[in-house]
Amino acid sequence: MAQIWQNIHEGVFKHLENLEEIVLNLQSKICNSNQLQAAQKSTHQLAGTVATFGFEAASHIAKAIEILLQNQPILINIDSLLL
After folding, report:
1. Which sequence spans correspond to the domains of the chain?
2. How far is CA 8 from CA 18, 54, 58, in A?
3. Which of 46, 63, 68, 73 counts the highest number of beta carbons within 10 A?
4. Helix spans in 1-83 (H)
5. pLDDT tens, position by position, 12-49
6. Could you give the CA distance from residue 80 to residue 82 in angstroms, rounded to a whole number?
């Protein structure tokens, strides 16, 4: 099990980096629907992966973040709409 964790822990940290980026974008109100969907996918995958390795608290937190992201209104950077 330890060897498997060694093989996938980098992916777990990549999911965390993606989540950090989306949180910053949400705070700046420059998040688009693609970013939001990517963040939802990352949290879903993160929740499952960490649960597999017994990190139940981390899994519950990731699931809660996923739910919050699902209920997040889509924010679009107004500059991206200007042609």
Report:
1. 2-73
2. 16, 14, 16
3. 46
4. 2-28, 33-52, 56-70, 78-81
5. 888 888 888 877 877 777 777 788 888 888 889 989 98
6. 6
